[in-house]
Task: structure prediction
Amino acid sequence: MVRLLRPCCRLLLPNLSCRSHHNDSAKGKRLLLSRLYQPRNIWEEQSSHLESKSNERTSKSHKLMIRAGLIQSSSPGCFHFLPYTVRSIEKLIRLIDKEMHGIGGQKVDLTSLHPADLWRQSGRWDLMGKELFRLVDRHNQDYCLGPTHEEVVTHLVSSGGSIYHKQLPLLLYQITRKFRDEPRPCFGLIRSREFYMKDMYTFDATEEAAFQTYNEVCQAYSNIFSALGLNFVKVQADTGNIGGKISHEFQLPATIGEDRLLVCQGCGFSANVETLQPGERDCPSCKEKLTETKGIEIGHTFYLGTKYSHIFNATCYDSQAKPFVAEMGCYGIGVSRLLAASLEVLSTEDDIHWPGLIAPYQVCLIPPKKGSKESEAALVAESLYDEIIHSVCGLRGEIVLDDRNNLTIGKRVKEAQMMGYPFVVVVGRKALENPPVFEVRSHNAGEVQFLSREGLIDFLKTVQVI
Amino acid sequence: MVRLLRPCCRLLLPNLSCRSHHNDSAKGKRLLLSRLYQPRNIWEEQSSHLESKSNERTSKSHKLMIRAGLIQSSSPGCFHFLPYTVRSIEKLIRLIDKEMHGIGGQKVDLTSLHPADLWRQSGRWDLMGKELFRLVDRHNQDYCLGPTHEEVVTHLVSSGGSIYHKQLPLLLYQITRKFRDEPRPCFGLIRSREFYMKDMYTFDATEEAAFQTYNEVCQAYSNIFSALGLNFVKVQADTGNIGGKISHEFQLPATIGEDRLLVCQGCGFSANVETLQPGERDCPSCKEKLTETKGIEIGHTFYLGTKYSHIFNATCYDSQAKPFVAEMGCYGIGVSRLLAASLEVLSTEDDIHWPGLIAPYQVCLIPPKKGSKESEAALVAESLYDEIIHSVCGLRGEIVLDDRNNLTIGKRVKEAQMMGYPFVVVVGRKALENPPVFEVRSHNAGEVQFLSREGLIDFLKTVQVI
Result:
């Protein structure tokens, strides 16, 4: 046994100055498109039968994500995430983590199985009706699958002992899978039954402090959506079955949106139509006419007051050690929905456009077709690939080499545009000139440039990655 | 609306050369221990009532994790992960991702809700009995919560279109929450009902190629466990209800282990006792006497053959475009179990010892007590903190400043040891000498050194982080 149990002294990650999740390329391995798992026949055959298989209402992003092999349906409103989507979601999570840490958020990971008793205590066991997925375990205990975690987190904080003033505001958040038995799942990841949500719960000693926390979280949300280049609207919203005193939604205007918004061009007032009097079309602030638009909800914030902290007895102490029932807020971003909604508003009917920062891969490099006049530029393409990952540290693991050299450059460029790589570098005839010239297509900007090797490297150094 | 919809031009992550998930500190903010959420009263009151509340059998790691505020029980066998645990698990996931990418693994994320039909097709809907959590949706459709994903992934690959030889071997994996209604959950995260598992599924054209893939995955598993400094044993194992032809388990020898292993000191043969004839105690290879030990299973590999690919018709094509039913393998690492099992074998009864690489924070820096003789060293401590995160890029976000300066250094050192920070830096009386000297306690090595400022910085540059 002694020989088997020898610990290992292998050194890990010697290159500390450039940590990366995807450092295959750093080892000299090239990421080959032909190796990537992506149900390609769907793309080639345009197989619309797959799209119409279920009775779900579809949308542009839904169709594009199916066609491009980004997701695959498992059951109504439940989708497998395929490799491109996983990469994008992981980047989105890093962006969210960064902003949540920036405001002092601490990450937890709460169970998906919720004991029914907690939901009975809040009264939502009955209130949620069929939207809760319910089950019993082998001992006949009732559980639900968490669609949101107000009950669970408040119980956690309450049973974990007192919160002292130095810990306030306490901001706990998680990014986990949530479950909701939607009556009519539709639009792929936009309205699904199993989805990723970032949910944050905040605890403060006073209403005033809770408001400040509320505003800080809203600002962090704005930062996230802005970093994705999204044109969002923040509207006053209804508190629904979550409860509480104040609520806002972050909405992406879109024709498929299921929320109706009223926005004032004059003073910037904006509201979900649910919060206004029926028929009200004048701005409550400046009396201008309100404009109606539809929106996809991508974030929702609630100032809860003491609704849950009272039920579960979550107490915190101010600087004089005086106990208070905690003032709470809760805040959600539909993570997988945000991804799909971004594609919905940014893409064309044929081409995916990712928010640049969270594109699965930043660059697709296309070498010449085998047997073509420019075929000897293939070696140039490979050495260019290696030079980029050597010189542009941030792009390691971010460059796909489209090695399917039985296809023309034109066909592969078209596919690359459909997949939405933010940058496509074509190594074609001009790469054989002296000095070589490369075609660089910036997908989101809709620009084409011809750059020297050095120019290309300098250009790629400006690409933002997360 | 126009004014509201202005996109933002905020620059993200200007410091590309040092990407980090936790870059609070990079902004000059210090990580203060008093701000961290950790149910501290549990620790102070030693409250054993919390440990014995349920009827679950406990273990050293279970008790330590509860006492230190790393996890909290939600229901039998279900635990909330609190911030320290989330950080550790995220590091473990990065380590696993790195090794999986190294062998060409592609990450997917499959649904937790599995349609019953897939499990009926494989015959495991009945076979799994009460271990499956089952539920029905609002349309009375049967589902289970995935404890493992052979059915789902094989169906995915089969319905996603043909796999071409250039894509082979195809290695798909995920790191997601799994559900298993254990008859007797125990030992905290070691045998729980809701847990994180890394599961990989591989597809090859021939048995020979599948064996090669099998060996590569096993090697990656060994790399992961070795990187954690664990003394593991790889034993031949039973295939259980997963099925297949060959199977190995990766086991951590431990007194609480529920698997019985027989190991040959002579030739290195080792096996789960289930795979041998009852009463067999001689090594089948060299006839030496076998030694029995108990183990905690942390990884399991299966060469499945065509069991699932045959049922779900998963076909792949060799280089001559000849179709084959795919030869499959499946591979699991219990991620949350691996974390707990590591603590189980590395810790003492009182002090947590993390595998250094995945400790939640690498360094705890302890300034002097307020009002003590050395209290003016407090400023030295703060400037030291700032210098470290400035000079040692890899440690950004990894250093906690124990700002509870109402407590003695001794008390905080004791707590830091209990929490298992790999490195504790004490800024005490010697820090006021000229030049200043710092006490550095290496928890896992059990060493204490006294270092100059430069010596300390150089020492910390050698700390491995992921």
Remarks:
- Chain B has 13 helices and 22 strands.
- Residues 20-36+361-460 of chain B form a domain with the Rossmann fold fold (CATH 3.40.50.800).
- The two ends of chain B are 45 Å apart (CA to CA).
